[in-house]
Amino acid sequence: MHQYLKIAEQIYDQVQTKYEFTDDHVEDLNNLMIELRNAAKDSDFKMLYNYINFEDLLMKSKALSIDLDVSILPKSKNKGEYILWLSGFVEKLIVSTKKTETKLKNKVVMPNYYYDDSGNIVSKTKNSGEEIISYFKDKEPI
Question: Is the pTM of this model over 0.70?
Answer without folding.
Answer: no
